[in-house]
Amino acid sequence: MAGLLVGTEITVDSAGTAQPLATSQTLVKTASARAKRTNTGNIYIGDSDVDDTQNDGFAAGDLIALPAGLDAAYDLAHVWIDADTNDEGIDLWYQPFQ
């Protein structure tokens, strides 16, 4: 179904250990991530080596948009998050690429 919006949660089990936004190929047109409002620490987004030394991260309630280019897509399996605190994470919404 074209235009479908998918929502999910991603939780970092172990702070300091990055994990992907998807465990298998998930091509998307656009995605938005909001740090859980209950988080006590920051969330960091990047590649498989992401951690608190690579960027300032985003705090509880902060929203980040992750658009692909026009008629382009990217794979959520290649986007990773890490957290300052165990069991904290993001709400994620994305539009699949079809």
List the keywords.
single chain, mainly beta, 98 residues, three-stranded antiparallel β-sheet
Write structural notes for this entry.
- The protein is an all-beta fold.
- 0% of the residues lie in helices and 43% in strands.
- The chain has no helices and eight strands.
- The strands form two sheets. Strands 1, 3, 5, 6 and 8 form a five-stranded antiparallel β-sheet that branches.
- It is globular.
Briefly, what is this?
With 98 residues, this protein is mostly beta strands. The chain has strands at residues 6-12, 19-20, 27-35, 43-46, 63-67, 74-75, 80-83, 88-96.
Radius of gyration: 13 Å
Structural class of the helices, strands and pairings?
A: mainly beta
The ordered string of helix (H) and strand (E) elements is EEEEEEEE
β-sheet strand percentage: 35-45%
- Overall spatial form: globular
Span from first to last CA?
A: 9 Å
The proportion of residues forming helix, as a percent range, comes to under 10%
Major sheet: size, sense and barrel closure? 5 strands, antiparallel
Q: Please tell me the overall pLDDT.
A: 94
Count every helix, treating DSSP H or I runs of 4 or more residues as helices. 0
Number of strands: 8
Q: What are the low-pLDDT stretches, counting only 5+ consecutive residues below 50?
A: none
